[in-house]
Amino acid sequence: MTSPDIARPAATAPDAASGRAGALSALVGGALAMGISPVFVRLAQDAGVGPFASAFWRVALALPVLYAWARLEERAAGAGAKPTFTRPAVVSGLLFAGDLLFWHVSILQTTIANATFFATTAPIWVVLFSWAVLKQRIRREILAGVALCLLGGVALIGHSLQVDPAKLRGDLFGLATAVFFGLYFIAVQAARAHAGAARVTFALSCVTALILLGVALLAGDALWPRTAAGALALLGMSWLSHAGGQGLLSVALGRLPAVFSSLVIFLEAIAAAIVAWIALGEALTVAQSLGGALILLGIWIARPREAAKP
Questions:
Q1: pLDDT at 273 over 90
Q2: 135 touches 252 (CB < 8 A)
Q3: What is the pLDDT of residue 256?
Q4: Nearest to 196 by CA among 11, 6, 29
Q5: pLDDT: which is higher, 112 or 82
Q6: What is residue 15's predicted lDDT score, i.e. its pLDDT?
Q7: Chain-centre distance of CA 35, in angstroms?
Q8: What does pTM read for this prediction?
Q9: Residues with Cβ < 8 Å from 252, sequence gap 6 or more?
């Protein structure tokens, strides 16, 4: 992949379309990779690894893979190593650490369905921040697409939602997860202006890993899996869900708007439901299938359009 810092001729219309198609493919691939992470988390917990420790291993074990990818990426572009710890990359790491921490605490203090539902509100925060702070114009198609995705998300997991005042704190932590993840999209897009996808993902992962290790130690989480299956689950979560999922998301954010890319969280929900159906035998209902269709329709409506020709 060409580094964003290298001068190159203006892209022709076919080149731009090809780049956009590649970015969309990366977005879908990243969603599928991130969507299977709950299965790995469950397997790691069965092997005795604490929730914060599994989040740490998810990031830390990916660092060698991400560094090797960064060097290959820059060598293919004919450029030297790019700046690693730029300000947007460090901010991205802090935000991703907050996302994972609030997510795990939310799961512990409310139902998984409630935590997932509130986490899927991330695109709302991306839209609000982009409009109110960055002063970006938000297309009507984006607003319609986000609304359809939210309706689809409710249909996909709404049957499991619970209203329980005793679990209000966990629900609020789920909402905080969405805020951190939403701002993460904007920060990664800013970081991509300075370096390639792998270099950015490596940098933010270093920051996130340090924070998660400290939290895991303070929480007294068991760090080491008791079984070989647990170790393989940690490797799978790290190499597939993080290096693959977050890395491909960084690729997409180099070409696609953060507002549109944030809809990937709904693709994650679809992927998670399909994986649960295939691997765990959790059958999909008619409402869930309809929810998945609404999400796909919303993403199609919100898709980036070609710029008008002068």
A1: no
A2: no
A3: 87
A4: 6
A5: 82
A6: 52
A7: 9
A8: 0.82
A9: 23, 24, 26, 27, 30, 261, 264
The helix or strand, by DSSP H or E, that contains position 141, with its residue range, turns out to be helix 140-157
Mean per-residue pLDDT, 37-55: 84
- Which position has the token pair 């647990």? 230
d(C-alpha 167, C-alpha 109), whole Å: 6
**Site of tokens 């796909």:** 296
Per residue, what are the HEC states of 14-56?
Answer: HHHHHHHHHHHHHHHHHHHHHHCHHHHHHHHHHCCCCHHHHHH
Rounded distance between C-alpha atoms, residue 257 and residue 237, angstroms: 27
- Residues 241, 244, 246, CA angle at the centre, nearest 5°? 75
Q: Do 173 and 106 contact (CB within 8 A), yes or no? A: yes
Give the list of residues 6+ apart from residue 230 with CB closer than 8 angstroms, or none. 43, 44, 46, 47, 48, 49
Local structure of residue 160 (DSSP, 8 states): G
What is the C-alpha to C-alpha distance for residues 198 and 251, in angstroms, rounded to an integer?
A: 8
Report the candidate in 239, 97, 94, 117 with the shortest Cα–Cα distance to residue 170: 117
Nearest to 245 by CA among 65, 125, 111: 65
In this predicted structure, what is the pLDDT of residue 4?
A: 42
Contact 64, 113 (CB under 8 A): no
- Report the 10 Å Cβ neighbour count for 140: 9
| pLDDT for residue 84 is more than 80 | yes
Domain ranges of the chain: 19-141+162-261
- How far, in Å, CA of 90 to CA of 124, rounded? 23
pLDDT of 276 reads 66
